[in-house]
Write a structure and sequence with these properties.
Elements: H1 4-13, H2 19-30, H3 39-49, H4 55-63, H5 67-71, H6 74-83, H7 91-109
Length: 110
Amino acid sequence: MSTEYEIKRQEYLSGKLCHRKFYLWVAEYIGLNETYFPSAVKILVKNYKNALVNITDLKSIIEQLPLADWDKQDFNIRNLAFAKGTKTWSASNTVCVLKVMVEAYLENLK
């Protein structure tokens, strides 16, 4: 029996869902929120809110964060995914879902 995640994943793999829509859906499905953002992202967002960095610089800096900063969140996010019955998950899933979610979060800060 396929889980809701597996059905959506097949839609994504077959091209029916774009990368962004799929991973935003995944974030909502597993209950991901900004508390799971890498520490560096949280600090940068705080600096943005305190007017220490503008939104363009913020996005550029976040895009250049080392992969290891994103990977550190894998254990916690993988556990969220598995708790929802997800049978397949990788570190790349973690990075993709986080980056798409951070991007959407930043768009809402404007």
